[in-house]
From TrEMBL, chain A:
Name of the featured protein: Proteasome subunit beta
Lineage: Eukaryota, Viridiplantae, Streptophyta, Embryophyta, Tracheophyta
UniProt superkingdom: Eukaryota
Family from the record: Belongs to the peptidase T1B family.
Subunit architecture: Component of the proteasome complex. Component of the 20S core complex of the 26S proteasome. The 26S proteasome is composed of a core protease (CP), known as the 20S proteasome, capped at one or both ends by the 19S regulatory particle (RP/PA700). The 20S proteasome core is composed of 28 subunits that are arranged in four stacked rings, resulting in a barrel-shaped structure. The two end rings are each formed by seven alpha subunits, and the two central rings are each formed by seven beta subunits. The catalytic chamber with the active sites is on the inside of the barrel.
Keyword check for Zinc: no
UniProt KW Nucleotidyltransferase keyword: no
Gene3D superfamilies: Glutamine Phosphoribosylpyrophosphate, subunit 1, domain 1
From TrEMBL, chain B:
GO MF annotations in UniProt: threonine-type endopeptidase activity
Protein name: Proteasome subunit beta
GO BP annotations, alphabetical order: proteolysis involved in protein catabolic process
GO-annotated cellular components: cytoplasm; nucleus; proteasome core complex
Alphabetically ordered keywords of this record: Cytoplasm, Hydrolase, Nucleus, Protease, Proteasome, Threonine protease, Zymogen
One Pfam family per UniProt: Proteasome
Source organism: Brassica carinata (Ethiopian mustard)
Family as reported in the entry's similarity comment: Belongs to the peptidase T1B family.
Amino acid sequence: MSIFEYNGSAVVAMVGKNCFAIASDRRLGVQLQTIATDFKRISKIHDRLFIGLSGLATDVQTLYQRLVFRHKLYQLREERDMKPETFASLVSAILYEKRFGPYLCQPVIAGLGEDDKPFICTMDSIGAKELAKDFVVSGTASESLYGACEAMYKPDMEAEELFETISQALLSSVDRDCLSGWGGHVYVVTPNEIKERILKGRMD
Amino acid sequence: MKLDTSGFETSMPTIGFGSSNDMLDGFSTVPSFDLPRTTDFDGFQKEAVQMVKPARGTTTLAFIFKEGVMVAADSRASMGGYISSQSVKKIIEINPYMLGTMAGGAADCQFWHRNLGIKCRLHELANKRRISVSGASKLLANMLYSYRGMGLSVGTMIAGWDETGPGLYYVDNEGGRLKGDRFSVGSGSPYAYGVLDSGYKFDMSVEEASELARRSIYHATFRDGASGGVASVYHVGPNGWKKLSGDDVGELHYHYYPVPPAIAEQVMEEAAAE
């Protein structure tokens, strides 16, 4: 098993009508052994911007701390929050700085930009940005996730329907992966509120 | 089953200089066979065997107690990280009074258990009496020993009831055969052993023993990524085996550890207040 499959992870983000949803699994494992079932992979950068990181758990935590630091500096200098597109470029630059000794994680960035237009993107571990209009996936269950999202996604879904869709896509995909699952964590973000929900999944 | 030794009968390859044959006189009957042309011969062999050898991603267990033998297994088949099936039958019914468990390569286990079933039936017909568990496990162990080193992957337990009472043997592809009271095989076996060993008593009723077996499999599926699906529990008694239960492990979790509903509502209220 490769180093990206050492801890196991699954992250997915989807775009809806003036809203977005980002979801991840909750397992932390060491190869086949499950160590924890409440590992946080998605973190808030500010009220309209979330980042989910899949891959090696130690790099997930360290990279998140670095990004929060950089964003706080930006807030002090510019006296405002970063736009999602700018943040994506920042993440891409930070990852490429370590081109020959990379952070072994794949970020999924989801945010609400100007005019409440949702923005999602994903990157590989050295910063190649992939913008998408519908959904992005990352982690050990990514192939299953692509299939499930492709089948279940519809454009312009409202927040509740988006929550149902992303939850079903996540749960059915991680049920086909030994290394991810053990519950789910979903954030649905609209211009007015952030709804955080924990999913009851198969614990095997 | 006779080992194919035709590979040993090739003639010795000639060495460059043909004249100094007196050196080679004593070696004229050395067996030799075709070798693959590769730079790393030792590594190549190991790699080829390792590629065919699937990791034993599973949890199976069996134990003897007062009322017979309890056999339990999960039902997940995995290929590396991918779950290829959640509904594999890992407890194989060799005949109405003997069960075998499957761990390792699915094809290997299914084939050799069926083969064992055939041999047991032939024994019955030839000797007008049933074969003992000891005899059946020895037949299987000898068959597997003759294929030793060829990359078979079989980690099985033979459980049954014969004239001497309940019998349980562990047989693997190395040709090992162990008699015992409690076994667990597979990547989830350490977790199953933890629960099984701490809860085991010889004097258990069938219900207590089946609950212990089910719980052990459930805990193994929770911790081990390569085990999951359905926990099947079988009991082998004096009249043969009987399937006691097949519970989906996803539902068993919430049965053992129910989620108190109040907490979920709290989370939603807190998030909405942001």
